[in-house]
Amino acid sequence: MTEKNNIANPEEHLHDCEGDDCDCMDDANSRIITLDMEDGSQKDFVALDILSHEGQNYIALSEVGSMEYDVLRFVEVDDSLELSIIDDDDEYEQIAEIFTEHFSKLASEEEDDEEDEENDK
Description:
Blueprint: E1 2-3, E2 32-36, E3 42-53, E4 56-63, E5 68-77, E6 80-84, H1 89-119
Antiparallel strand pairs: 1-5, 2-3, 3-4, 4-5, 5-6
């Protein structure tokens, strides 16, 4: 798993929205998905963000309450996502680094926005 820092709301969605002004992902609860685990239990995860890279789709998921996240590959089947573990260590490291850079950029932009708001007071 990768350590989670200050992560802003994801810019991409896990579903299709009507219109460009969709704010459905702004609510943290709308990003929670429940996964069936191998032992038969269920766990809730927060979908932090998704990305496409070299023809593959990836999602960063954090177990609710955790400060770490994991990266999985996914394919869309009908109206659902099929998740799979990334077995190739090099591929995993490459995608994890892309997510880390993306989240760092979002956190930096969020800090800049907060500073701008503070300076406007």
